[in-house]
Amino acid sequence: MHAATSVLVILAAGLLSQWLAWWIGLPAIVVLIAAGLVLGPLTGTIALGIPQAELTELIGLGVAIILFEGGMDLKLAEFRRVGKGVRRLTIAAPPLAWVLGTLAGYFVGGMSWPVAVVLGAILVVTGPTVILPLLRQARLNKESASLLKWEGIVNDPVGVLLAVLSFQYFTIGGGWDRTAAGVGAAIGAAAVLGGAGGWLVGSVYRRGLVPEHLKAPILMVLVLVVYWASNLVQHEAGLLSVTLMGLVIGNMQLVEREVLQRFKEHLTVVLLSVLFVVIPSQLQAGQLALLDWRTLGFVLVVLLIVRPLSILLATIGSPIRQQDRALLAWIAPRGIVAAATAGIFGPELVTAGYADAARLLPVTFAVIIATVLAHGLTIAPLARRLGLAARTANGLLIVGVTPWSQALGAALKKLQIDVLMVDGAYHRLKDARMAGLDVYYGEILSEHAEHTLEAQHLSHVLCATENDFYNALACKALGPRFGRHRTFQLATPQASGEELRRLTLQQRGYFAFDPGATFDVLHERLSEGWAVQATKLSPQFGWAELTDRLGTPLEQWILLGAITPAGAFRLYSKEQHFKLAAGWTAIYFAPGRTREG
What we know:
The protein folds into 2 domains: about 5-385, Na+/H+ antiporter like fold, CATH 1.20.1530.20; about 395-590, NAD(P)-binding Rossmann-like Domain (Rossmann fold), CATH 3.40.50.
């Protein structure tokens, strides 16, 4: 197969696997690995013909960008809130997991001590590329999600560094003095190239010395340069450097931070799709045959003993809640960094004379598949049982407390739909709080709201302040979190005017309800005695009968939303049509009370 065709096949298979995983509700990594195994050892479709050393270097570049993007996602405000727990998970837990994993590899997996030590270090990592999608899927609360996220991102380079030092100790020699020097060199490279380098890049960007269209591409290249330069100082220190570089840049409050991070996120999705297809595709059928009952026993020990015991010991006397300790003791999926590191050191250990190191990569893949499946399929029900996650995302976040939005919130609450009212003016929240509605006092666009606002149980956003342009700004900010198709604002008065004078859809949220249902119109109708009402449709009294009774839309009533027969809330917009049928509950704004037929 030609090189261009191979690249196209890998890209198509990777992104199709990502979409398929989302559609069927499985962790993406499982489908990606399956695709790689099918295209590689099972069918031989992908044969890159690249020497192993060169392929390993290319994989390292991709992993560097992935870890940099993970570092940018770490916020110091989160650390100040869960810092004591994070320190236990990133300082105390890795050595414990390393020791316990090494013992399991030797006594259960049947590996030699050198190979068991390297494997134990590799499995210290918990994989942000797997953890972060699982956190979104499970709808965890902020504190629990922060603990898992910080552990996954920080421990990745730590585990790789431990694996490197172990590898060097058993292959190059030099004793503990050389090992300690390697640790110092790695930390120094990370501090200078990653920390200081990240601060320098941020300062240059802040001064406007780089044009906007070049900032994201240049940053990507600089990340790779820092990774390469750090590896020259100490082998595989580059991952630690780029993680620290991402942490620094992500917390510098750069105006362009969101744009840079969005670019990196999109690039990471592509890289993950490629790497998790390429790496398993390079496995040989002979390597898969090395998996035996000892591998199964090792995987079970890692799942049921190593992880729970390391967390239990590391968090003794810590302020971490018991529910979080229980969740952490179980959730530890391994990801791309473990696979890439095993792919690097397995062949090199075999070359150095450790024949059983041929099992390193297939055993690591067995752990990855087992942990991703076990943890990916259980994190949501376990978190809900522990009271750490929302059962469903079914409710409305209302930005802006006004008489009309409060009336809407009260009506939805009576229908058992979750509602959260948000406003930056404390006096506006008083009536909503007295009405029994959940409220959040603060600016929805603030960093405080980003880190503390618990909205994982809500599915839709309605920005309903009197300022149309603020509504548009808030919708743009909240769109990536809730999904742009679920982010709405009240219509602007200009919506019925000339097309070219309107605020375009790309610059705002979807107009809720009817384009004529502006802030002024809704409040005027409220003062005239209109009320938010609900009618459950039936075969005898359906949508046609209800609309006939209500009259002319906008003039005599306004459709606000609906509840499906399964209980799912839907906000209505003429820009997003949906049909109501028997079993649905129609929610609308109309004069007086409309009786069901």
